[in-house]
UniProtKB/TrEMBL annotation:
Organism, as annotated: Candidatus Liptonbacteria bacterium RIFCSPLOWO2_01_FULL_52_25
Short name of any one Pfam family annotated for the protein: YqeY
Gene Ontology MF term list: carbon-nitrogen ligase activity, with glutamine as amido-N-donor
Alphabetized Gene3D superfamilies for the sequence: 1.10.10.410, Uncharacterised protein YqeY/AIM41 PF09424, N-terminal domain (1.10.1510.10)
Official protein name in the record: Glutamyl-tRNA amidotransferase
Entries under InterPro entries matching the protein: Asn/Gln_tRNA_amidoTrase-B-like, GatB_Yqey_C_2, YqeY/Aim41, YqeY/Aim41_N
Length: 148
């Protein structure tokens, strides 16, 4: 399970004295624990790997947005810190699909009769859940429909 891998990596990072990595992994574990409490309450059920990946993807999105804002504000030091966190986070996320693979899914859905942006987006995200960034999917659909 992904939570077990996070905990094992936390233990190894503590032993190696990598303070930055320890803090980041602790944050990810904390976010997963919060999601578990939100979903199950006081029950002792564990989150599925899919749920943990969703939490980590949400964290990755926060990092990407922060990097963009820090760069616009000229805070390269903070942008580098967020980039480091995103790099560590990427180790736990499934490999993202390429734009060509996403385009193939969108083309298939479009050929099946979906021609509205919302319908295409809903169908694509259902099929690509956890494998592709929603912004990238939206951009590909907009290009396909000539909205860009």
């Amino acid at each position: 399970m992904l939570t077990d891998r996070l905990k094992e990596d936390l233990k190894n990072s503590l032993k190696s004295g990598n303070a930055e990595r320890v803090g980041i992994i602790r944050l990810f574990i904390s976010e997963a624990n919060n999601k578990q409490k939100e979903k199950f309450g006081a029950e002792t059920k564990m989150l599925s790997d899919e749920d943990v990946v969703a939490v980590l993807q949400k964290e990755a999105k926060k990092r990407r947005e922060a990097i963009e804002l820090y760069k616009k504000g000229g805070r390269m030091d903070l942008a580098r810190k967020e980039e480091m966190e995103l790099t560590i986070l990427a180790e736990y996320l499934p490999k993202a699909l390429s734009s060509a693979e996403i385009k193939a899914v969108v083309d298939k859905l479009h050929a099946s009769g979906l021609v509205e942006f919302n319908a295409l987006m809903k169908g694509a995200m259902k099929e690509l859940k956890g494998k592709a960034d929603g912004k990238m999917v939206g951009d590909i659909i907009k290009k396909k429909l000539g909205l860009i």
